[in-house]
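Margin note: ligand = FE3-S4 cluster.
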Amino acid sequence: MTEVKKLFIKTYGCQMNVYDSERMAEALGAEGYVTTEIAEEADMVLLNTCHIREKAAEKVYSDLGRLKPLKAAKPDLKIGVAGCVAQAEGEEILRRMPLVDLVVGPQAYHRLPQMMEKLGEGQRAVDTDFPPEDKFDHLPQRKGRAAPTAFLTVQEGCDKFCAFCVVPYTRGAEVSRDPARLMAEARALVERGVREITLLGQNVNAYHGQDWTLARLVRELAAIDGLDRIRYTTSHPNDMSDDLIAAHGDVEKLMPYLHLPVQSGSDRILKAMNRKHTAEAYLRLVERIRAARPDILLSSDFIVGFPGETDADFDATMDLIRAVGFGAAFSFKYSARPGTPAAEKTPIDGELADARLQALQALITDQQRAAQAAMVGREVGVLYEKPGRLPGQMVGKSDHLHAVHVADPEAKVGELVRVRITASAPNSLAGARL
Ligand code: SAH
Ligand code: SF4
Ligand code: F3S
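Resulting structure:
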């Protein structure tokens, strides 16, 4: 019987890291670790990091700095850095941060047990390989009752090389997982109580496992009894194939919400970003998607202040936002990332970029509120995810991914109910169960 030790994991970045953190907890679970929410009581602290913007990467170093007193008080404490900063910086992290014991890249963490052995012998360990085997096949099976919603990584890596982005370097080339294994993993999730699966990938709609497309995978998943909702993220406009658009029209379990990053509305900037499509092409694509599923809610990502962005370029982005009408969006000030082509270019003025970001976010907030207000009076499905803060209240996501609060004292987490939306608050909706 192995001794029980405690593991604290902090997750930064995207949903793929959330999924990976769960898998790492399982890999270390087989080594006798149970997870804890309290860093102070941990025997191992693992930071699952993000390298996408400078702020995200620097946060990791300041968090590591804050672990110093903990390590001083408990010299046996092991500290690990996983994820995209680990991949990008590797050994450099050990040099800069003597308190770090382990550095593991996002494609190598199924080797954590071997790395832990090295740590046990008092050594430090680094693994940033891209091994050919599927890391997920080398991890222990998941057991026990699960939350009603789950992530399932189906594709990793990216071959698109947008000029600003580190992902192709930190996650490597596009790799799709075997569809039979994904179907088995999805069935196992449903047996454990999962009712909604979100398929994940850096470019999820580039999925091409064996001869399956993402549309085929969605259709096959929809045939699983007990699985009620399917979502996927993040997609690239150039990989929105006809069969996937069609699936939005005729697969009832595919939810009417799509995150479709466009980054900019200026053709000049899109070209400089190496996005390989125009603003017009994006607008036409949106039309086709809405023709298939008229009530679909769209969200997007935007970068403002890309090198060379003029007022006219920024206006074009604002025009595109007005033309589409988004239900939500994430927007970021451009951050130069080491090793990317855009980092070679002269940055634009920081204050100008801040002002543009504020203007863009104000417009998006207006659109988000309008999209929420338009839901009032409508009947939607809501999957209860947790009890609300008020007694007898439940909180869940609507079909359109809005958080909805419902007074429903008898209900249980995991119930999928019909709700009439009654009011819209700044970041959520209220509804009454039908
Ligand atoms: N694969 C996805 C997004 C991955 S990163 C896609 O192609 O859309 C998530 C978002 O972070 C991106 O959509 C982009 O808006 C933002 N982002 C990526 N690199 C960035 C950078 N260097 N500076 C600012 N934002 C960036
Ligand atoms: Fe990054 Fe572009 Fe790939 Fe998205 S498509 S992960 S933004 S390189
Ligand atoms: Fe960040 Fe890596 Fe995800 S850089 S956004 S954690 S793929």
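The pocket of iron/sulfur cluster (ligand 2) is lined by residues 158, 160-162, 165, 167-168, 202-203, 236 (CB under 6 Å).
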